[in-house]
Design a protein that fits this description.
The chain has 19 helices and 2 strands. It is mainly alpha-helical. It has a two-stranded antiparallel ribbon with strand order 1-2. The longest helix has 26 residues, at 320-345.
């Protein structure tokens, strides 16, 4: 964990300096647009890339390393794959090097660059989003679900299409991301839901439906896995590692509770907040469902990035004199959660042939 703690300190410092030396633009005499310093933001990205890209363990990393070592990637093999994009990527990389580290480094580079650029563009407090990206656990997840996080990072770049209502470009992006992980296709119908005003009746129905699924999870899972039996995801029907930790569900829910009570103020300072709230609500729904089976938490990867941005804005919902207290409270609470989840619960060990 030493490398991960050092990375947390470095990226928080760099991202804080990025915002400290930022340019502030006032739009229409009320809306504030913060443009963080690009040089320090680059330092943040580099640290993420090195730590993630030079690892040789965590999650399913050894599996990808093993597959890269033993597989001869040909066009015939690529055509037989459900996710051809990832097979093509490996085929290209293997032409340059047989060292699987090139695959780990490349996916880490693309994933983290796309994610941090998104946080840079849409966060109100850039360093807080970067901090929660690590302490909330998503950075560790990117080193576990490599293909799905790569797909999520690609789709995350299409946030502007969600905001603009450009359905066609967003659809093309989703289809491209699905070449790396087919679960990305769930974002197609979700496009239409998230463009509605947040906290509508549809929102409440979605959350209620999630709770009902948990209560009747055995029937729900049987029907779902029966439908998926002939697909590559049918293997998850035998997945039995229990449900998601209730603490993680609570951690995910609290920012949304704050966003609900400060929804009018949030819309004033962040006109596009409804979209980010709706994406976060869908993520919470998957988290609730995952209490029945942890595997459903994987879908939350596509939505957690929007909640990370939302957290950076809810600080500004509070009275000016209370904002500093809320800021430090978020720092301390997420630090405690990170220690519990990564050290006590998961006992994460970080190994690298390059970083020691």
């Amino acid at each position: 964990m030493t490398v991960l703690w050092i990375n947390l300190a470095i990226v928080f410092l760099c991202s804080f300096l990025s915002r400290y030396f930022s340019r502030t633009l006032v739009l229409n005499n009320s809306l504030v647009s913060i443009k963080p310093n690009k040089l320090f933001a680059l330092g943040t990205i580099i640290s993420f890339i090195l730590v993630s890209g030079l690892r040789n363990n965590i999650g399913d990393t050894p599996f990808y390393v093993h597959t890269y070592n033993i597989t001869n990637f040909t066009w015939e093999l690529v055509k037989s794959q459900d996710e051809m994009g990832f097979a093509i990527l490996q085929m290209i990389l293997k032409r340059y090097s047989n060292d699987p580290q090139i695959l780990i480094f490349t996916t880490a580079l693309v994933t983290n660059v796309l994610i941090i650029i998104g946080l840079y563009k849409y966060s109100r407090l850039f360093e807080l989003s970067v901090y929660v990206y690590i302490t909330g656990g998503l950075f560790l997840v990117t080193m576990n679900g490599i293909r799905q996080c790569l797909a999520a990072a690609i789709i995350f770049t299409g946030t502007k299409y969600l905001i603009e209502g450009n359905w066609f470009k967003y659809l093309v992006l989703i289809v491209f991301a699905s070449l790396f992980h087919q679960s990305a296709l769930i974002l197609i119908p979700i496009y239409f839901f998230v463009r509605y005003k947040a906290w509508s009746k549809a929102t409440l129905i979605l959350l209620l439906f999630s709770v009902l699924i948990v209560l009747g999870f055995n029937q729900f899972s049987s029907a779902l896995f029966s439908a998926l039996q002939q697909s590559q995801y049918g293997v998850y029907s035998t997945f039995n590692e229990g449900g998601a930790n209730i603490l993680r569900v609570i951690v995910f829910a609290i920012p949304l509770v704050i966003a609900f009570f400060g929804r009018e103020r949030l819309r004033e300072i962040f006109p596009h907040s409804d979209l980010f709230v709706n994406m976060s609500i869908i993520g919470l729904s998957f988290m609730i469902i995952s209490m029945g089976n942890w595997i459903f938490a994987r879908f939350n990867i596509y939505f957690e990035l929007y909640q990370i941005i939302l957290i950076s804005w809810i600080v500004k919902v509070f009275r000016k004199k209370d904002q500093k207290l809320v800021y430090y409270a978020i720092i301390l609470c997420y630090l405690g959660y990170f220690y519990y989840d990564s050290v006590i619960n998961l006992n994460i060990k970080y190994f690298s042939n390059y970083l020691g």
